[in-house]
Design goal:
This protein is mainly alpha-helical. It has 17 helices and no strands.
Length: 440
């Protein structure tokens, strides 16, 4: 990752990441597809209403996995074998402990949080069941995400793809069996999801134990090394806080959508899965630029930073334009994958039109933040993103939205916040690049 030409290497690294992310989406999308078609719109609303709350709680620790990947990549670039060993074992120890803590916290407080979000009475019981079961899978989810972050830091994006291809198939098959054959409704899809998550965790740990360099995981040597923990927290905690507060703004938006009733919740849920695919593909490019930047910082090849950044910006724009166009041309067909209810489809199309026409702003915002994070600066992009993407979104809920209380106007909060945040991050990148060059 430290020698050119870079574009081919960026593609080779990012394409498996994209496919991995899309397969990960299958976990939730398969849940939604099955309950939407075989259990009804209330069950669809119940599953969909939990996603922002799940992300609010889990994303803090997923951010730490980002820190683990950045630090490991930096040690690889600098050829620091001892520190590679320490960062891997620290990261995996954190993942196990964090997973258990999140599982306990989420299980016992699920219903309380759903009530605070104003979840309608007809949706609350099913949403609570789904969420409690889902949180029991948190240890598997976090172990997989930390492990996959380390594997990718070594330059291997194919193994996580293979793992999720297999476990995604398990999830889909179990969904169909548990919901259609055993009539378990939302409990069935939740059980299918956590089984898949634990299988993913086991397989990624097996992969880590077979790595051929100092990143190899030795389970009997799991230990938290203070210096590596501090480094991981320094990069990962701001990223996690950013993601969690991002999710908090989405919780507020979901709470507002809840006031429109279960049909609107179901339509939003179906449409979310469409724009999530675009985000996931563009986020793969963001993860790529972060890993490339980290290795080049470690190898002290600072002249490569701008090349990687602009190539990744261009790639993210291209992906968002192509996928966005598909969404705008076939909105009814895409929403119809998840439901056959005409009312739900019509509401879902509203979100599709807004998001698919503006998602390019989110893609370049995300790439910019990850590039800066890969350069070792995590606090600054966190603050900018919180003030821009989150702050403006919440501000819109209390200023612009009350002027016209429609879903269309509510969804406008997304592109407005993305555009403003990208401009700030773009400027921030050049400031940090200039500082790095001065130190050379």
């Amino acid at each position: 990752m430290t020698t050119g030409p870079f574009f081919k290497k960026i593609l080779i690294f990012s394409v498996p990441l994209m496919l991995t992310g899309v397969l990960q989406l299958i976990y939730n999308a398969a849940d939604i597809m099955v309950v939407g078609r075989f259990a009804g719109s209330t069950s669809l609303a119940a599953v969909g209403s939990t996603s922002s709350l799940v992300n609010l709680i889990i994303n803090l620790f997923i951010g730490l996995s980002t820190g683990a990947g950045v630090i490991t990549a930096r040690h690889i670039g600098a050829a620091e074998s001892k520190k590679m060993h320490q960062s891997v074992h620290t990261a995996m120890a954190i993942s196990a402990v964090s997973g258990v803590a999140v599982s306990i916290f989420g299980f016992f407080l699920s219903e309380t949080f759903l009530k605070l979000m104003g979840t309608p009475d007809d949706v609350l019981p099913l949403a609570s069941v789904y969420l409690k079961i889902y949180f029991l899978g948190a240890p598997g989810s976090l172990v997989y995400n930390f492990g996959a972050s380390i594997v990718r830091a070594t330059g291997d994006t194919k193994r996580p793809l293979f793992i999720l291809s297999f476990t995604g198939l398990i999830n889909v098959v179990l969904n169909l069996i548990l919901v259609i054959v055993f009539h378990m409704d939302v409990a069935g899809v939740a059980i299918a999801t956590i089984v898949s998550q634990y299988v993913s965790a086991i397989l990624i740990v097996i992969r880590l134990t077979h790595l051929e360099n100092a990143c190899r995981l030795k389970l009997n040597k799991l230990k938290v090394y203070k210096e590596e923990l501090v480094s991981i927290i320094k990069i990962g905690l701001p990223a996690g806080i950013q993601s969690s507060l991002f999710s908090f703004s989405n919780v507020l938006i979901q709470s507002t959508i809840n006031t429109f009733g279960s049909i609107a919740m179901a339509g939003n849920t179906a449409a979310q899965n469409i724009d999530a695919i675009v985000y996931t593909c563009c986020n793969a490019v963001s993860q790529t630029t972060m890993t490339f930047a980290s290795q080049n910082i470690g190898a002290k090849k600072h002249e490569n930073l701008r090349k990687v950044y602009f190539m990744c910006l261009g790639l993210a724009l291209g992906i968002s334009f192509v996928l966005g166009a598909i969404g705008l041309i076939f909105p009814e067909q895409l929403v119809g994958i998840f439901t056959t209810d005409p009312e739900v489809i019509e509401i879902g199309k509203t979100r599709v039109y807004i998001m698919m026409s503006t998602y390019f702003l989110c893609s370049i915002m995300d790439v910019s933040g990850c590039q800066i994070r890969g350069m070792g600066k995590s606090l600054e992009p966190m603050v900018i993103t919180l003030l821009g993407a989150c702050g403006l979104r919440v501000l819109w809920l209390y200023t612009g939205f009350p002027l016209n209380k429609t879903l269309w106007n509510l969804y406008l909060s997304y592109p407005l916040s993305w555009g403003a945040t990208f401009i700030a991050l773009f400027i921030c990148y050049f400031v940090f690049e200039k500082r790095i060059k001065k130190r050379m």
